[in-house]
Structure formats: structure tokens, C-alpha cells
Write a structure and sequence with these properties.
Layout: H1 3-27, H2 32-56, H3 58-65, H4 69-88, H5 101-112, H6 114-124, H7 130-153, H8 159-178
């Protein structure tokens, strides 16, 4: 697979991470740099690891995980989206300063499940995995960071509306996973 194709693949795989980061950028107005780095790092690392895992475990992934990939992605994003919407209506909201580890892991997994297919296609096309995985990780990190700060920049809109929109975006990603 040529380098240009791998770059396009990396960009395509990073879109979900960018949209999710955008949603979180709307919600977290404290410790922005730390939250952005945490989110971008987790999504980038998972995006880079998933193709590598699939590359080495192609038979297992194809047989046991791939049939459930859509429902796994749907469930995680639906949970995160509904949580966003419910949290926006809480009366005594405590401002969270950091994205919690559970959410970071779920986001990392959910945004990178489609990267399993990339690992399989890289193997079948005769490519190595190291450079594509690093490139996918880097592109995802950058796009997730950009998404987070785009969300931060739009925060002058009413917070409740933006949080509901962010939750709806996550639910749309969940529904897209089923299609």
C-alpha cells in the first residue's frame, strides 16, 4: 500500500476521534491542555495499537470480534452520548476537571475498533505494520487535538445546548456504527 494511501487511511480512521474530542472540548473548560493531551493520547494510542493487534491476530479478530464490532461501537457511543445529555440537565453539576480513565479507555476502544479492519487490510496487502501504526497514531493525535480545541472555541454558545448537541453527535456516531 503506497504511503499516500496509508496517510488517507490514517486520516479516515481519525475522524471519529476528532468528533468525539470536539464533543469533549465543548464540555471541559478547565485544564484544557491536560484534557486535550489525555484524550488525544488515548485515541492516538488505541488507533495505532488496534491495527497492530489485528495484524497479528487476524484469525481471532475476524472470527470472534468482527461480527460484534458494530454493536460494541454502538453500545459505547450510545452510553457516552446519553451520559452527556443526562449530565447537561443535572441541576447541581460539579465541574469535572479531568476526563476520567474509564471514559478515556471506552473512547479509545470505540474510536479504534474500525482500525482492526485496517490492520487486516495492511496484512493482506503485504505491508508491514510499524510505520502505518505510527502514522495512524500521529494523525489521530493531531486530529483529536484539533477537534478538542474546535469544541473549546465554540463554547461561547449556551452550555446546555452544546452539551446536548455533543451527546447527540456521540449518539449519531453510535447509529452510524450500525449502518
Amino acid at each position: 500500500m503506497p504511503l499516500g494511501t496509508i496517510i488517507l487511511l490514517a486520516f479516515a480512521l481519525s475522524i471519529d476521534a476528532s468528533v468525539v474530542s470536539f464533543s469533549y472540548g465543548l464540555n471541559y473548560n478547565h485544564k484544557r491542555l491536560r484534557n486535550s493531551l489525555l484524550l488525544s493520547s488515548f485515541t492516538g494510542i488505541f488507533q495505532g495499537l488496534m491495527p497492530a493487534i489485528a495484524y497479528f491476530l487476524t484469525g481471532f479478530v475476524k472470527t470472534y470480534i468482527q461480527p460484534y464490532a458494530k454493536i460494541i461501537i454502538f453500545s459505547i457511543f450510545l452510553y457516552l452520548g446519553v451520559k452527556f445529555i443526562f449530565d447537561s440537565f443535572k441541576k447541581n453539576k460539579k465541574k469535572k476537571l479531568f476526563i476520567d480513565l474509564k471514559s478515556l479507555i471506552l473512547i479509545g476502544i470505540a474510536t479504534s475498533i474500525d482500525a482492526f479492519s485496517a490492520g487486516i487490510s495492511l496484512l493482506l496487502s503485504g505491508n508491514g505494520i510499524l510505520y502505518p501504526a505510527i502514522l495512524i497514531m500521529f494523525v489521530t493525535f493531531v486530529n483529536a487535538s484539533l477537534g478538542f480545541y474546535a469544541g473549546v472555541k465554540l463554547r461561547h454558545f449556551p452550555a446546555k445546548i452544546l452539551e446536548v448537541i455533543a451527546g447527540m453527535l456521540l449518539i449519531l456516531i453510535a447509529v452510524k456504527a450500525l449502518v
